[in-house]
Amino acid sequence: MKTKKSHLIYFLATVLLLLTLIGTERMALGQLSSPDYTSKVPKFVFANILAEQENQLKTNPLMIRFAESRKRQANDRFRPVYHFVSPESTLNDPNGLCYWQGNWHLFYQGYPPEDPRQHWGHAISKDLIHWKDLPYAIYPGPERAVFSGSSLVDGNRVITMYHGTEVGNMVAISDDPLLLNWKKTTTDRAAIPLRTEAKFPLPYSVFDPCIWKKDSIYYALSAGRAPKGPGGRQVATSYLFRSKDLANWQYVHEFVENDRFTLINDDYACPYFWPIGDRYIMNFFSHMSGGQYLLGDYDKKNDKFIVTQGGKYNFGPAIPSGVHAPSATPDGKGNVIIIFNMNPGKPTGEWNQIFTLPRKLTLIGKNEIGQEPAGDIESLRGEYQKVAAMKLPANKEIVYT
Question: Three-state SS for 24?
């Protein structure tokens, strides 16, 4: 005869078994809840009218905090004056450079002090030289941290695609005047996940993406490296995806062909694939060799990038003091604007890494890229003296005061 205690033990054991079976089933279906990656950084919703946004920014707690931080750090004599650095803490790769409604927008991996996982920081400029801080743009969740990616101006909106750590590549959209409000196309998963439900290895890697549009279809490049070189050694690889709705993506194939310019153990991190002149350029970062580019033609029928030339922005190792990751965007005139971050050569204290001055890349020959400063560089000059053409006499010192 069973006692009340026996009935209770039997009941609890049955409940435990049911919970275990339910948990096992949910795990098999990939439905177990992910860790809560909600950011501890204050997040705000802004108006969709420019004047109202500007008024909101005047009293926004993050903007006030940034201004106080910049004022405090201005006493550091080694902190750059006109190269962009984070308003607080450190920063990493520049991301999503684009031109939208009268402003250049630059995003970057920021590390908020109360939650030092990467969030996308945000700044705007009229001239690519003088930058104004804006609140953090993209926050973690469902991803653990917001890593590198690019932006696409698509009619009346801007689309960003970036790597969300531990889940895969994410997509977010904004359409307000200052790109302050962002909505992710998937809120409980990655647009391109790191793994599938089936227990088979993926034929591609999911890493830093870039995005473009062709014939009403969105394309995305996910880059990295794979053991496909001589003797199974790692070489740079790139993988192409396409989508009609930005939420569901289909893998196509490897994208880059005829790359004879990168080295064993290079990789295509932080790729930016854009037209330049009548050709195409893919700027990227190798964790071994630093900033580089590939130049070639876009075979739109077969969706392949046929490379004919390549080059480096950095000669020597990427670290220390090397040219790091790029962020690039078309200038609307057939050229490409590009900004890099620079790895530190010495300890820098609270702040770390700076952004280069912007460069304009032009096609000056079939296989030759030209570089020149971009933006209002002249505005950084102080008083100057103009010296007219003259004849210099031999063996005589000429002094100007």
Answer: helix
- Which residues have CB under 8 Å from 387's CB, separation 6+? 400
Would you say how long the chain is, in residues? 401
Residue 221: count other Cβ atoms within 10 Å of its Cβ.
25
H-helix or E-strand spanning residue 131? strand 131-138
What predicted TM-score, i.e. pTM, was given to this entire model?
0.87
- pLDDT means per 10 residues, the chain with 401 residues, are 50 45 40 78 98 98 97 88 92 97 98 96 98 98 97 98 97 98 96 75 91 97 92 96 97 97 96 98 94 97 98 84 93 97 84 92 96 94 82 86 65
Question: For residue 57, which phi and psi values (nearest 5 degrees)?
Answer: -65, -25
Domain ranges of the chain: 33-380
**Residue where the block lists tokens 């931080």:** 69
* Nearest-angstrom CA–CA distance, 269 and 234: 14
Is omega for the bond preceding 320 within 30 degrees of 0, making it cis?
A: yes
Homologous superfamily (CATH) for 33-380: Glycosyl hydrolase domain; family 43 (2.115.10.20)
- Residue holding tokens 């794979």? 226
Euclidean distance between CA atoms 218 and 201, whole angstroms = 25
